[in-house]
Amino acid sequence: ARQIKISLFDAPPALNGVAVNVAIEGVQLMNGILATPFVTYIPEQVENLVSLQDHSLDFNAKAPLGSYTGVRMLIDATNSNVTIAGRKIPIIWGAPGEVNLSPIVAVDFTVPFAVGNSIDTKVALDFNVLQSVRFQNGVIYVQPSTSAANSPGTVSGTLKNNGGKPVSGAAIVLADGSGKTVNVTSTGTDG
Questions:
Q1: pLDDT tens digit string along 24-49?
Q2: How far apart are alpha carbons 141 and 100 in whole angstroms?
């Protein structure tokens, strides 16, 4: 076994007064349909995905040597919610007409990676809150739209207007090669 790091990110624009709280019970390493426990939380760890703009939630543990096809996050559906202006609203997992009633929801991040004696394994997961959460007819649905990388990349720079001043709060949309949105964030006060 070798120590590896799996980091959960999300970079939605600032959503004042909104929290998307997921109760994480554990993380598993996937190899096809086989799941290897990686991290388990008792009680579950509740994380506000919106807060993951400027830091990651890191899962560090030893993993068996081998090849994997992805990471699975186990979420306690009954203790997950969206909070808007202090009001807690339960999350309905799935989409209208396709609701997942299981008390534990498995959220899969497809990403091939290997754990080896000489490999420094780091995996980055993105929950994509803005693409995953939908408010319809007074109900909040979460249908996870995830992405992952076994070699996390970075984008950096400063967005400036024609006058050379930093642009604060501008939406930044990242797309993959096929044009699918894989991340959305916004610029800080310094552009």
A1: 999 999 999 999 999 999 999 999 99
A2: 10
